Amino acid sequence: MVTKAITAATIGINSCKIEVEVDVTNSLPNISIVGLPDSAVSEAKERVHSAIKNSGFTFPTGKVIVNLAPADIRKEGTNFDLPIAIGILKEQGILIPDDLTIAFLGELSLDGSLRKINGVLPLVSGLKNCGIKTVFVPYENAKEAALVQDINVYGAKHLGDIVNHFAEIPIVKTTVDINKYLEENSQTEYSYDFKDVKGQQKAKKALEIAAAGGHNILMSGSPGSGKTLMAKCMASILPPLELQEAMELTKIYSISGLLQSDNPLMTKRPYRSVHHTASQNGIIGGGSNPKPGEITLAHRGVLFLDEIAEFPRQVLEVLRQPLEDGEVVISRAKNSIKYPAKFMLVGAMNPCPCGFLGDKEKDCTCSDFQIQRYRSKLSGPLLDRIDLIVNVPRLTTEELINTKTKAEPSYEIRKRVVKARKIQAKRYENEGILTNSELNSKQIKLFCKLDTKCSDFMKVAAQKYQLSGRKYDRILKLARTIADLNHQENITVEHLSQALQYRVDIA
Ligand SMILES: [Zn+2]
């Protein structure tokens, strides 16, 4: 007799339903798994065999064939252990209802206990979309699974607990209050605050504009000017995550195995800082068992590239596409997968190799050729995707010792950012975007209208600075954000000229 058990497989940050079919034939005792399993799935044989025996059940004596259908989807990971075991137990006549609206996910250890797996949120939400009503998951994954509404979630510690559940000892259903998780977030404390950053008014304003519109920004300045500290402070002025964004982010962190089991919902915008020695796969994503890279882990948050000119040119080139599309496509032998990657790029660089070009107190020791070669590492097309470029000079000794003027705390800046984001969310409610930085050229025409005075101003600017079409559009988007921060419906020449000063390339 062929028995069936339902489970799921992840594809990118989504998933699809998988049927596990089990058949036992009168042949030499053996177990084989077919249906495009990877090595972790193939190893399920050994784990399932031991787990069934050590849980006090008998393992079939003939040849066990396990088919994972549909066969054209690659099955990765260890979540297939439990459904395979359930299929075998059903075959053995153990009383588990033959109800195909119940699904099973989990890794088994040799003694039959269930181990935490990655990707539970995308797996369960995919199952719910396929009409599954009930899901059994490892106990440690139960809260995460219960983030999906309108599906019954049971967290089991042991294979035996699931069999008992259908006999006389039911497992308690897991439920969570998503709003409570989101509320807890609003009281978050941040490790870095703009109140601790002295001076740098212009750079701070630029970062505020970047946060308000979701714009990419590059800071250029000497070592010790506070670029890295200010980048770290960005997290403290970004608006709270909306539920939909939080769920999206949680899916990414779930498949990456980076969630906490006690508080599974990601409620803070990510801040990812990447070193120039990181591998391309680590930054972009990929590998033989593809995993999201830093650009996906920074989704809806900040990706900070310190010393951006030190990154391999190849890596910077690969960043261009995700910066444009908000997603990254990882090609593989048979198919390709997509990961979301809507991040804000915050870059920092020295103005020259020695770092002191334009410094008030120290002399630059670089030749013109060295400076030119250093800057050319940031290709034009990458710079075209950066909306704001701001010079961050080192503070003078006088400015450093000045303790009289207090800097504005992050929560005050954040209030303005949140207001500006609300204006954008309302304006774009039918456009499928959230911020000005996401406007496409058609939407720019619609939402960044210029009066005659403004277009005359831009005509002159375009000629004077030899603006490419892309740069021109970016200035309009930036001006839109500056207008939103000032609660003004129309873009003015004042907004445009402010936007323009952030677009004139590195000093
Ligand atoms: Zn120099």
Small molecules bound in the structure, each named once: zinc ion
Q: Count the domains.
A: 2
Secondary structure tally: strands: 18
- CATH homologous superfamily grouping of the largest domain: P-loop containing nucleotide triphosphate hydrolases
List segments where confidence is low: pLDDT < 50 over at least 5 consecutive residues.
none
Strand percent estimate: 15-25%
Keywords summarizing the entry:
binds zinc ion, single chain, Ribosomal Protein S5, domain 2, alpha/beta, Rossmann fold
Could you explain how this protein is built, in words?
This protein is α/β, with parallel strands linked by helices. The chain folds into 2 domains: 164 residues, 2-Layer Sandwich (Ribosomal Protein S5, domain 2), CATH 3.30.230.10; 225 residues, Rossmann fold, CATH 3.40.50.300. It has 21 helices and 18 strands. The chain starts with a strand and ends in a 6-residue tail after the last helix. 44% of the residues are buried. The longest helix has 18 residues. Zinc ion binds next to loops.
SSE topology sketch:
Elements: E1 3-11, E2 14-25, E3 30-34, H1 39-42, H2 44-54, E4 63-69, H3 81-91, E5 102-104, E6 107-108, E7 114-115, H4 120-129, E8 134-138, H5 142-145, E9 152-156, H6 159-166, H7 178-186, H8 201-213, E10 217-220, H9 227-233, H10 243-255, E11 271-274, H11 280-284, E12 285-286, E13 291-292, H12 294-297, E14 302-305, H13 313-325, E15 327-331, E16 336-340, E17 344-349, H14 368-375, H15 380-383, E18 388-391, H16 397-401, H17 410-427, H18 441-447, H19 452-464, H20 469-485, H21 493-501
Parallel strand pairs: 3-4, 5-8, 8-9, 10-17, 10-18, 11-14, 14-17
Antiparallel strand pairs: 1-2, 2-4, 6-7, 12-13, 15-16
Zinc ion (ZN) binds at residues 352-354, 356-357, 364-366.
